[in-house]
From TrEMBL:
(6R)-10-formyltetrahydrofolate binds at residues 64, 89-92, 106. It comes from the Bacteria. Residues 1-181 form the Formyl transferase N-terminal domain. Keywords: Purine biosynthesis, Transferase. It comes from Enterococcus alishanensis. Its EC number is 2.1.2.2. InterPro entries: Formyl_transf_N, GART. It is an enzyme of class 2 (transferase). This is Phosphoribosylglycinamide formyltransferase. CDD domains: FMT_core_GART (cd08645). PANTHER family: PHOSPHORIBOSYLGLYCINAMIDE FORMYLTRANSFERASE. Pathway: Purine metabolism; IMP biosynthesis via de novo pathway; N(2)-formyl-N(1)-(5-phospho-D-ribosyl)glycinamide from N(1)-(5-phospho-D-ribosyl)glycinamide (10-formyl THF route): step 1/1. It catalyses: N(1)-(5-phospho-beta-D-ribosyl)glycinamide + (6R)-10-formyltetrahydrofolate = N(2)-formyl-N(1)-(5-phospho-beta-D-ribosyl)glycinamide + (6S)-5,6,7,8-tetrahydrofolate + H(+). Catalyzes the transfer of a formyl group from 10-formyltetrahydrofolate to 5-phospho-ribosyl-glycinamide (GAR), producing 5-phospho-ribosyl-N-formylglycinamide (FGAR) and tetrahydrofolate.
Amino acid sequence: MKIAVLASGNGSNFEALANAVRNGEIPAKIDLLFSDHQDAYVLKRAEKFQIPSESFELKEFENKAAYEYALLNLLKKNQIDLVILAGYMRIVGEKLLQAFPKRIINIHPALLPSFPGLHGIKDAFEAGVAETGVTVHYVDSGVDTGPVIAQEKVIIDKNDTLEILEEKIHAVEHGLYPAVIAKIIKELGHETCAD
Ligand code: GAR
């Protein structure tokens, strides 16, 4: 089972996954970290964990299809079986979805289908809802759609600021994502993507 994590920015979820690998909670290693931003902090985190990383940006390519093709080639070259999105802020294209059926997983900081998109935490906060949460789901061609694998609620207290809510959500993400990924890897066993 070869695993790639795709991330665009800070990488705190990547770090939670890398820690879970290190402490044995996830029974596999992360073989590759890809970032679509060359200056993303997640690349520094990969270096710290000595996880191989690659980075290129959409703007280096003629169009989105060419970017996706390069990404697909990178994953194939590394014989990746499971793709974990951790703050990867792009829609996954059809070619990638076809190459990894039910093998691309995402985490989103809201209780989907509520508050999809780039600002799940802020949108829930501003909507004034009493609870929000975290969703782990299989990726399809939509924005934060696709079958839900697991959800965990987070209560929004009256006194919570957006910053406090962000901290609460991230704390839940850092527990939930490694646990769900560990379970998925155990269920997949030694199956490769080619099986
Ligand atoms: C996380 O909260 C993740 O759920 C969110 O981006 C953040 C990345 O943080 N993803 C989405 O909003 C996907 N639509 P991180 O870089 O510190 O892991």
